[in-house]
Write a structure and sequence with these properties.
heterodimer, A: alpha+beta, TATA-Binding Protein, globular, B: alpha+beta, Cytochrome Bc1 Complex, Chain D, domain 2, 6-stranded antiparallel sheet, about 10% strand
């Protein structure tokens, strides 16, 4: 009976969460591009991540004569986590460090990241599922905080 | 335990029964990132102004529910009917009129062969010869140049065909679409019978639908052994990159930037590269591509001295975007990467 209660409780909580399994985590904010970049960096730090580097996609494109708006990719991670994962699961190497693409659309800025939970489709195993779940939860919280932050 | 159960029941009850769905909030949460805050469009199509003026409710409802396979728009299968209806109500609040058009679900019978001839003459320049659309990418032109300001819909898309009934398609051709280059029946110079023939031809696309391969079918990471040592492998890769017209960026160790230089593993090096002509084309097709950029081969020397190359399988990852045009381009990119690896490790 208790087992049935437990099962029902878990099912009910899962249903009430109404979680969408999107492949991408996305956000549109009204901040300026530069402020959005600063906010993302701040929030990543708050959650224990470090920005490894920023790739300027727009720079290369405009240098090559193509018209584009601001477009950058932020690479970030945690050193110890990265060390451990590339050792135990080298198949994850092409997917690390994690990335957020930041692009301007007129007066708004769009943030996009692959939903880490989606990687569980490719890389099964309980240990990794937990890791992907943590990353997803952190990313959602970071995006939410960026959205709620006031313009600097 | 019993208390937790009661709490779970209460949570479910309050979240789905008591509180009526708020269309504005739901739109902001699920739609605005692509369609923009006031339906101005962006990655997704514009929905404001007169764009949805004559849309039947059921068409919009089914579009949200089923999405558009291969056209970026996802299927919102987890939203309740009430939540989708609330989103539809919110989008309809931008209309100038308060009435909602309805169209019969009855089938229109026309001459499919004649419809095909007319479609090729009158429609294919925008909607494509096989109905898959001539537009590159999706949504509206924001930062980049495009052939169409608003990308014409893919009429062979299973999501579109399931959402649009024959009479709604007929009405759209009859009146055209305000705010887009879609002309009316008068401009197209077709009579009512010819209009029915085109509708029947569009409906016939249903029989040619082929579902996409499942995500799990291919390896997400491609791993190759190099017969050379670490330094030689990197030198070979750079030489091959130049030969294949890629521009490569300064070397980066994988852990670089995450820890002081003296702590990072110098036997894991990422070679990052780009072909900007190809990149421009791909970003026009899929603006969110930055989440997998730039192209990269990571060279790793293992403890036993064996050198391995790790590459993201673009064919697999491209499918995450629900964008068929990107998947097609990714196939070509995959071939280039395989050529690069083959040359470097030969």
């Amino acid at each position: 009976m208790i087992r049935l209660f437990k099962l029902l409780t878990i099912m009910l909580l899962l249903i009430s969460c109404n979680a969408q399994a999107e492949n991408m985590i996305m956000l549109r904010v009204n901040h300026s591009f530069d402020n959005t970049m600063i906010l993302i960096k701040e929030k990543l730090n708050d959650y224990g991540y470090k920005v490894a580097h920023i790739q300027k996609c727009d720079g290369g494109l405009t240098d090559s004569g193509y018209k584009t708006d601001f477009y950058k990719s932020i690479f970030f991670g945690k050193f110890e986590e990265m060390q451990q994962l590339t050792g135990t699961h080298p198949e994850l190497i092409p997917y690390l460090p994690l990335k957020i693409a930041v692009m301007q659309e007129k007066d708004t800025v769009v943030l996009v990241s692959i939903n880490p939970q989606t990687l569980s489709l490719f890389f099964p195993g309980e240990e990794l599922q937990n890791q992907f779940g943590r990353w997803e939860s952190d990313l959602r919280a970071i995006f939410e905080e960026v959205e709620q932050s006031k313009e600097l | 335990m019993r208390q937790l159960f009661v709490f779970a029941c209460f949570t479910l009850f309050t979240s789905t029964v008591i509180s009526a769905p708020d269309g504005h909030n739901l739109y902001n949460k699920h739609c605005s990132v692509c369609h923009n805050e006031n339906g101005m469009g962006g990655i997704g199509l514009p929905l404001n102004g007169d764009k949805v003026e004559h849309f039947p409710r059921n068409y919009l409802f089914k579009t949200v529910r089923l999405g558009r396979e291969g056209r970026v728009m996802p299927a919102f299968s987890k939203l309740s009917d009430a939540q989708i209806n609330a989103i539809v109500d919110y989008i309809f609040s931008w209309k100038k009129t308060t009435t909602t058009d309805t169209y019969s679900d009855s089938k229109i019978t026309g001459d499919v062969k004649n419809g095909e001839l007319l479609f090729q003459q009158k429609c294919s320049a925008c909607h494509g010869k096989d109905g898959k659309s001539e537009g590159i990418g999706t949504g509206v032109s924001v930062s980049r140049e495009r052939k169409f300001q608003v990308v014409p819909p893919a009429l062979n898309n299973p999501g579109f065909l399931a959402a649009a009934n024959d009479h709604w398609i007929r009405q759209t051709i009859k009146t055209g679409r305000p705010g887009t280059i879609m002309p009316s029946q008068t401009t197209l110079q077709i009579n009512d019978q010819q209009l029915d023939d085109i509708v029947s031809y569009v409906r016939s696309f249903e029989s040619s639908y082929q579902p996409h391969a499942a995500l799990e079918e291919d390896e997400p990471t491609l791993v190759f052994d190099s017969p050379y040592d670490f330094k030689t492998t990197i030198a070979n890769l750079k030489q091959s990159l130049q030969g294949l017209n890629f521009r490569y960026f300064p070397d980066r160790y994988m852990e670089m930037g995450l820890a002081p230089d003296n702590k990072i593993n110098k036997k894991q090096l990422s070679l990052r590269f780009c072909n900007f002509k190809q990149l421009y084309k791909m970003i026009n097709i899929e603006p969110r591509l930055g989440v997998v950029l730039p192209c990269r081969v990571t060279v790793v020397e293992q403890a036993d001295g064996q050198v391995k190359l790790y590459v993201m399988n673009m064919k697999v990852v491209a499918r995450l975007f629900n964008n068929t045009q990107l998947s097609e381009t990714a196939e070509k990119m995959h071939e280039s990467l395989m050529e690069l690896i083959e040359e470097a490790t030969l």
